[in-house]
Amino acid sequence: MASRVIDLDAARREALGEPDPIRVILMRQEWKLPAELPAAVLDPLFEGELDDLIALLVDLLGEGDGEGLNKDDVDFLALVRRVAAKPQLVSATLRALRGCFEQLLGPEQWQKWLDARPGLNAYLLLGKTAWAEYGVSLGGSIGLALFLRRRWEDVEADLAGRDVDARRIWLPAGHPQLIGLRRARVLLRSPPPDAACKQPREGRQPWSTSDELLALVLEELSVLASGLRTELRTAVKEAAAKSKVAASIGVTITASELRRAVKEAAAKAKAKAKIAVDVSATQLRRQVAEAAAKAKPKVRVDADTKPAVRAIEGLNKVKATLKADTKDFTDKLKKAASQAAGLAAIAAKSIALARVDIPPSTGAITEAMIKDLRRVANPRRERTLLTSSPGANNDLTSTSAYVDWPAVAVKSIAVPSWATQVKIVSTIAGALASFDLVDGFLRHRLGAATFGQETRFDTNGVTASNQADKTMLTADTLTVPASMRGTKQQVAVQGKLTLRGSSGNGLVRAYTSTTIVTDIEFLEVAA
Q1: Rounded to whole angstroms, how far apart are CA atoms 110 and 44?
Q2: Where in the chain is the domain with CATH 2.60.120.760?
């Protein structure tokens, strides 16, 4: 049986213009969701470690030319199979989904939700029903959120032209001025033809509405000019046919019949038939004879044809005038069209490497105006965790040069053929600073001659009679040389001392209770 609720806050929400929240009931407890789905709810999905997940979603749904993705509905079974194929994505995806629910419920309600200890089915049911209440699918909302991040400046400009503050999309849940993802999608679905969101991302500008109309006008003028002569010849043929020309006798065609035929042709061409142009009857007689010859009759014209000829010549002048008026425009339009076609052909075969953003009233181009557009669509990565512990004491005493230390941490690793960058983090836990004060540096070695950032360490309070437990760390991001790709190389931690105390006996010792952890990740990034 449905429960009945007395909402004492309804009047206050109505006065403030706040929409009614969505009530969620589980195990006789109640939670309230915001009336509109905030874009910030999906922020956890766009963190750096989930780039592969977003790439999977784009691959499954297809990336559209405009707002969002090609499809709205997510095939969860296909998505689960693809995520399961990449174990490093599983834990990151679960953390992101929990973050989305926390954003949706708010901190207090999220803690209340965790205290209720809901099962997996409760999470799935909440996600499915909540998105249905909000009027957008999961795929549609993710596609829109991705579009907002990629084209935010264009979205903000288009909505500003419609007196809508785009920043309201990112207001927190429950804010009375919030524009939810459903309403944002409606606003972006019907932009004007010249909207920034409708332009290609690569900067290639299509024809505007004005350009299209001018091209249509030019085409109509060309058709009109080329069709005038055909219309007039047809009129002469019709006049000859109406005069019942016989194949074996001569017939006189009256000027009134020809004048009427010419007027009909002129009306079709939207021009004036009566234009004062003096022409001899010989020219008109020749045109009638040509028309009659095609029908194989014998025609004799014995009439005053000057008015009709004047109409013909007048229309020819209209044609010449139109051609002269549009010649310059035609030449420019053809030149622009030729240049645009050439640029389009080049752009279709090109890959965007950079974009130059030139502010107004700027004469010189600076490096700050150049934006790098190079990226790898689906970058590959491979991560390996190496652990080791010495079987006996291994002391670091060298002050003249770097040495591999601890020796047991020198490992051989395969470098992927596609790797262009490597991130290495090494932690040495449980090392002992012994016999005197010790200062020095640690760094990484990859291969024979690729070295990482120097990391300094020092000790205080160590004397000849005591020791200090030290945890040491070094890390860096290195470029993988081309000669190293697809080969096996050594990775090691190296150390060097700069101070061994006043006695000269200070050292750092790795022993059987020391653990060395090296986290190495190869990445494929744009060169």
Answers
A1: 15
A2: 381-523
